[in-house]
């Protein structure tokens, strides 16, 4: 379990180096502890593995003031465990259900037990700024519309494939649009009066 905790800690450290999420951001975590153990998703949920993952991932996010949403399994329609304050901040509707290892999954169960004032919400309404998927449990529906893969050096937690994503605002405009501050300043130079 210590190896899983350390790998999770390294992964989130690298994630935050590449995408420094700020206070009030929303991070989504989905994962299969069965996959971490090398088994088929849903066949061997492990509270111990979930605890090790959350011990590695949560502290760096919480220290930054980042809200964490932990996705439940398909048996709860991918409902998520969040802090009540996060649900309020993002306008998320609370639902009545309590996750357990066979309906919700071990990660959601342990998150529910660890969070200060946990609630379950049906959806993040595609508002998460970034996230991690451990074992291919599909978190994309919770991310903002323009998701960008983050390539971490930590490729697996245990036996589970680890995927990470950040999001960025949509690029809007057409042929005349610019997308960096530097490009904007360069364009402004074209309109400054030239000396005679």
Descriptive overview:
The chain has 196 residues and is of the alpha+beta class. The protein has one domain (2-171): Hypothetical protein TT1679 (Rossmann fold), CATH 3.40.50.10360. The chain is built from six helices and nine strands. Strands 1, 2, 3, 4, 5, 6, 7, 8 and 9 form a nine-stranded mixed sheet that branches. A hairpin with a 2-residue loop joins β8 (156-157) and β9 (160-167). α3 (47-63) crosses α5 (106-114). The longest helix has 17 residues, at 2-18. The N and C termini lie far apart (73 Å).
List the helices and strands and how they pair.
Layout lengths: L1 H17 L7 E6 L1 H4 L10 H17 L3 E5 L8 E4 H6 L4 E2 L10 H9 L3 E4 L8 E5 L12 E4 L5 E2 L2 E8 L13 H9 L7
Parallel strand pairs: 1-2, 1-6
Antiparallel strand pairs: 2-3, 3-5, 4-5, 6-9, 7-9, 8-9
Helix pairs in contact: 1-3, 3-5
Q: What features would you highlight for this structure?
A:
elongated; Rossmann fold; 20% strand; 196 residues; alpha+beta; UPF0340 protein SAMN04488243_1172; nine-stranded mixed beta sheet
Concise account of the structure shown:
This is UPF0340 protein SAMN04488243_1172. By secondary structure, this protein is an alpha+beta fold.
The CATH superfamily is identified as: Hypothetical protein TT1679
- Low-pLDDT sequence parts: none
The tally of beta strands, per DSSP, is 9
**CATH fold group:** Rossmann fold
Radius of gyration: 19 Å
